[in-house]
Every structure is written in structure tokens, then in C-alpha cells.
Amino acid sequence: MFYRCKNKKYILFIFILIFNLSIEHVFSYDIEKKNNDVKITINSKGKILNSITDSRYRKSLFKTIRDIEFKTPEQIIVATWGNGVYILDADLNIKKRYFTYETANALYMMPEKNEELNFLVGGKGAIGIYSKKNTEKIVRTRSLRQGGIYHDICYKKPYGILAGSTGKGIYIFSDSGKYKNNIENPLETLWINSLKIDPPEWFLKKYLKNPDSDYILVGGNKGIEIYDLKNNATFPIKNINGFVNSIRFSSHKAVVTTTNKGIFLYYYSRWIHFSKNSGLNGINIFDAAICGDRIYLATEKGLFYINYIQDDCSKKVIPEFTEETRIIYPYGNDLIIGTKNGRVAIFSPKDGKIIKEINF
Fold it and tell me: Quick one: CA dihedral 180, 115, 104, 155, positive or negative?
């Protein structure tokens, strides 16, 4: 005998509860854009989320350290998913908090020569502009309110604030936050994870005959392309495949590009792909930092390093970081690292030890 319940809302609630309890924890994801619709495929069973507003996707990223910037060791800026932006001192003590309860996804520290602005924040359908007088201005973008996110943000004079979005290319704002325009054509990469202004001339010369314009590097769902802001032209780099998560330059005349298909290292005028031969096959790599002959890698399976100039380039595990690691940045002779679990730590590669850490 079946009991007939007249309260349909109660049945719906029970169904949703059972469904959510059966969901696996989300770690890796692949993104595909077709006809302006975004499909995110998660975990090994290929479950599909219709948009990044899906609660399962948001829950999997909550407290994640999304970006770290610093101008001096005494002012470390940390962007978190869902908890805004924290200002830390050199001992990792919290001094201030901005962008409160917002999704802070990207940071950009303004150069000292800019007399007014201090740093920028890219978030969910919004950017934050912070002055040296500690004023805050949050600008929301109407076309990105339904889940759209700025995955990277930077500043290029005279164009203004450049924000790389999910699925809609580059948005440009004035210094005060006034919307100026949106660049989609001729860009091939519309889901943008990384924007790098002023690529070094030694890198541009490999692809351009006269690198004398205003160029930026754009990384995302179509690899990497060089975009000419002045002439609205693009030059794809065919050596990179996979979904680009970050682009990092080093003083060694090297470029490290992290993807969901290993890392691509530009070194001595050629590209080297580290993947299966380094034990990185099938691992989503979010960020990288070069320290001497090592490349430290922030990945979904923890923190690794490889010796990129030696015959043995297999990955080595850093046992202090076995959780998903999202961001890694040189910090003097050390590394500053952010994880998915909300941990920020200063790590000494020389001693192989954590010097300081804080958990959000």
C-alpha cells in the first residue's frame, strides 16, 4: 500500500535532500562553451552542471584561496571564494577585510607610479577598486550577474582596467569603474583565466615581426593568444593545448603555462610539454612558480615540483601540501601558497618546511 501525500512541496524537499546527499565532492571540472551556453562537466562520472551558479559547484570551492598579491612583505592581499579579500601582515595576521562576503577570484596590485589606485579585485559579476586612501568601490556588470565571473584582472594605461570573464571575453573599465567596452571579436579565447600585460620582448619576437604595439597575453579555453589592444588583432600560439589556468614569467627568460593537460614551459626559445613523462598526466594544474632549477606546481592533487633542467623530470611530492593547492607565488626566497581548504602558508623550498600559516 502506498501512502498518498497531499503536500507536494514536502515530497519535493525530500527528493532534493536525497539527491544532494548522493552528490560526490567536486574536485576537477572541464568547461565547454557552445552557442553562448556553458557546460561544466565534473568528476569522473561526468555529471553536468548547467551553470557556475549551481550550489554543488559553489560548495566545492567555498573558502578556496583564489589569488594572492603583495607589494611589500608587510602587506599580503588574499582573495577567497565567498569570503572576500583579506589584508595580512608579514606574520599572516589579519589587518583588514574588503569585498566582504563576495566571491573574490582575482587580484591585481597597482604599480607605485599610480598615485591613486592601490589594488583591483575581480569577482562574481563585479570588480572592486581600492584606492591608496582605503576607499572601496564595487562595480557590478549587468551582463555577468547570472553567474558570470571575472577570472583575472589587470590594468593597462591608457586603456584602463581589463577584466577577463567567463564566456564573454575582456571587459574594459575606466579608472573610476565606468564601463567602456567589451572585447569578444576577434578573440578566440572567451573563457579567460589569465591576462598578462606587457609580455617581455624576447617572448613577443618569436611570434611577431614588429612587437611595438600594446600587447597582452590571454589564456583560457583556447590555449594562449597574443592580443593587440591598439589594433584589435589577435595572434594565437599554436604550441599550447588544453584549458589554460595561469601564465607565469620568470627572470630566467622562461614562461610557464599551467593547464588541465600538464604544463608548457617556454625555455631557450622552445616549448617543452611536461605531462605523462613527469607523472602529471590527468592532473589539473592551477599555478606554478620557478625557483632555481625547480618548477613548483599547485595542483588538484597537492603541491609538486619538477627539475626541469635535469634528465629526471618526474614530479616530487611536497608532503606538507597534500590537499588541492590553487595558488603559488614567489615571496622573497620563499613561496606563498594558497589551498582549496582556505589555508595560506609561507613555505621555504630551501628547508622544505612551512614557516608560517593561517587558515580561513
Answer: positive
